[in-house]
């Protein structure tokens, strides 16, 4: 009889994975190797600095083939500069200067994911310098500007207040949750646009 | 046997029948004159087919060569940060075959072996942890069917009718049965601290794909999945492990998931600031538009699935889904939205999953303006494109769930159109 509760306890433990059963502790070096992300409050920014002139040189070598010498974009590759004040236009130009709300996003993305095809090749100083050049290209800093962890939060992004959280719950869901019309819903229907007129669909599976 | 048959009498009969112009016989199986497919002994009725050792892992029969993912080269600057499209015009039921389920990569589909796979959980946790792939398989499993819809699905149609085929207008979607571990079980191993309100989820590929995920969703129904439709994830869908975020925009379903950081605020990374934010007519933009609203599409007839059978019985087939629940009803209009009929839902009906609907009609051969309208279990009714444009303008890029119109012409051709 005295052995029975122990057996039951063993069965219960075997049936449920409990904290500490699976996985192993992440070592500080491992966390440091992967935890490269930056937040708007500057959390995660490493020591380092870079100026506009250094950034211009680096940008010309490693970025301009796709993004243009001034960040204006080549062919269909993304524009990184310009487009100021176009967000309400018919064809808005969304760049770091015109659209991105936080400088941290640009630093983080360039450092973790660029150059395209050779990511993780820029060190902290190079990233600061390239971003300093992009801020200059967007007319947001002077040519003698030095971007560093200390100066980071002094840069004002023009569209910082241009975003608001998803408001569909108040602006759309009530409107679109009315009982729908089922019969005689409108007088007449006319076709106003044909996709075949535009003719941009690939022709067949061999395309 | 096979060689002699290929040049023998049966083969000649087959060719002769084809030369006789049997398009009608092929589709309608008419009786006069006698159908050689019946009166003549066919090859496959005589000699052997393939042995069971011919195809250890099979592909579709070659007659189905059109049922493939398609690319639209002009959409993006290159093919590794790009998208292709599921052939939904040719599929039935609700489960998407993995081999033709659409892809969206930002730095290509990477090859990450299970043996090299690591998942790290760190940040505001009691115990920062590293899991191997084998560790994940030792957690209690769940199976769920969910749709994954790209936030940009139908996005090219904001400005009007552009692409001619539901594969292109609505094919950034797939629907699979996932096997995996609830994310909350992994987080429980690490122990989330009270101030932990957001998760950063990050992939192992060079795009550094990362999104901020609110803790409420992470603890609700998010899965860390390693199988889909019964087998391992395909390379292009995140092998060996991806995030499954039911009902939410596909970008958040991070593939090749390698890291989860717990924090007290969102990260505002590139994919939730520059991208996956929705610009309104006044130039301000919505962010964190996570849910995919109720939506539907008639997959046949459609521009790639024209009507070849003439007047008479016609099956109208389509898909409906909602990121906020299940589909309660689908309405179909034949006259551009003047009048609507209840469609028939067929097959399994899961929350946040594709539903198949049908309307069986007797077509008199006249022009149709086909539309479908989904109603989900919250009571939300799929809006028209114009209703959406009235609120958002035409530059919000993402979350286009407006009603699609197909013009069916008397000759059976079908076209993507916009109507008043």
From TrEMBL, chain A:
SUPFAM superfamilies: Cytochrome c (SSF46626). Keywords: Heme, Iron, Metal-binding. The keyword Iron applies. Residues 50-138 form the Cytochrome c domain. One of its GO terms (molecular function) is metal ion binding. InterPro entries: Cyt_c-like_dom, Cyt_c-like_dom_sf, Cytochrome_c-type_DH. This is Cytochrome c.
Automatic annotation (TrEMBL), chain B:
Residues 287-404 form the Moybdenum cofactor oxidoreductase dimerisation domain. Its cofactor is Mo-molybdopterin. Residues 1-31 form the signal peptide. One of its GO terms (biological process) is sulfur compound metabolic process. The keyword DNA-binding does not apply. One of its GO terms (molecular function) is molybdenum ion binding. Keywords: Metal-binding, Molybdenum, Oxidoreductase, Signal. Pfam families: Mo-co_dimer, Oxidored_molyb. This is Sulfur dehydrogenase subunit SoxC. The lineage of its organism: Bacteria, Pseudomonadati, Pseudomonadota, Alphaproteobacteria, Rhodobacterales.
């Amino acid at each position: 009889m005295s052995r029975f509760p122990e057996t039951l306890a063993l069965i219960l433990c075997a049936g449920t994975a409990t904290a500490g059963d699976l996985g192993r502790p992440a070592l500080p070096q491992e966390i440091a190797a992967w935890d490269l992300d930056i937040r708007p409050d500057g959390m995660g920014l490493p020591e380092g600095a870079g100026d506009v002139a250094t950034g211009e040189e680096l940008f010309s070598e490693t970025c301009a083939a796709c993004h243009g010498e001034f960040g204006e974009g080549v062919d269909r590759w993304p524009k990184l500069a310009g487009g100021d004040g176009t967000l309400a236009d018919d064809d808005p130009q969304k760049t770091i200067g015109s659209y991105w709300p936080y400088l941290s996003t640009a630093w983080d993305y360039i450092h973790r994911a660029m150059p395209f095809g050779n990511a993780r090749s820029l060190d902290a100083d190079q990233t600061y310098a390239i971003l300093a050049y992009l801020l200059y290209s967007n007319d947001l800093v002077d040519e003698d500007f030095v971007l560093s962890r200390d100066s980071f939060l002094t840069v004002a992004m023009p569209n910082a207040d241009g975003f608001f959280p998803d408001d569909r719950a108040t602006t759309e869901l009530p409107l679109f949750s009315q009982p729908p019309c089922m019969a005689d819903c409108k007088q007449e229907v006319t076709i106003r646009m044909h996709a075949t007129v535009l003719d941009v669909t690939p022709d067949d599976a061999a395309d | 046997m096979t060689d002699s048959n290929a040049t023998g009498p049966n083969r000649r009969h087959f060719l002769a029948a084809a030369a006789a112009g049997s398009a009608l016989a092929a589709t309608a199986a008419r009786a006069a004159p006698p159908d050689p497919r019946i009166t003549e002994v066919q090859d496959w009725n005589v000699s052997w087919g393939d042995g069971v050792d011919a195809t250890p892992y099979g592909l579709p029969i070659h007659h189905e060569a059109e049922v493939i993912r398609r690319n639209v080269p002009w959409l993006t600057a290159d093919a590794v940060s790009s998208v292709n499209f599921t052939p939904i015009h040719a599929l039935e039921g609700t489960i998407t075959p993995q081999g033709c389920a659409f892809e969206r990569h930002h730095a290509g589909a990477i090859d990450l072996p299970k043996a090299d796979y690591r998942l790290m959980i760190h940040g505001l946790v009691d115990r920062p942890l590293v899991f191997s792939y084998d560790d994940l398989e030792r957690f209690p499993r769940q199976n769920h069917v969910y749709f994954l819809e790209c936030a940009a699905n139908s996005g090219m149609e904001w400005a009007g009718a552009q692409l001619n085929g539901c594969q292109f207008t609505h094919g950034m979607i797939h629907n699979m049965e996932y096997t995996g571990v609830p994310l909350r079980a992994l987080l429980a191993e690490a122990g989330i601290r009270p101030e932990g309100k957001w998760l950063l989820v990050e992939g192992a590929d060079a795009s550094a794909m990362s999104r901020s995920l609110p803790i409420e969703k992470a603890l609700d129904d998010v899965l860390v999945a390693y199988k889909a439709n019964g087998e391992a994830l395909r390379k292009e869908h995140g092998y060996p492990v991806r995030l499954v975020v039911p009902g939410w925009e596909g970008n958040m379903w991070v593939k090749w998931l390698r890291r989860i950081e717990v924090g007290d605020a969102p990260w505002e990374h590139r994919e939730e600031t520059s991208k996956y934010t929705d610009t309104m007519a006044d130039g301000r933009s919505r962010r964190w538009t996570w849910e995919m609203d109720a939506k539907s599409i008639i997959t046949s007839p459609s521009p790639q699935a024209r009507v070849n059978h003439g007047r008479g019985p016609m099956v109208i087939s389509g898909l409906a889904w909602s990121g906020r629940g299940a589909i309660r009803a689908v309405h179909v209009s034949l006259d551009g939205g003047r009048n609507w009929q209840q469609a028939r839902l067929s097959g399994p009906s899961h929350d946040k999953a594709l539903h198949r609907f049908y309307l069986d009609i007797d077509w008199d051969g006249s022009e149709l303006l086909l539309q479908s309208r989904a109603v989900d279990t919250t009571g939300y009714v799929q809006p028209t494109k114009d209703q959406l444009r009235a609120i958002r303008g035409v530059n919000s890029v993402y979350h286009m769930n407006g009603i699609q119109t197909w013009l069916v012409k008397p000759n059976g051709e079908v076209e993507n159109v916009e109507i008043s």
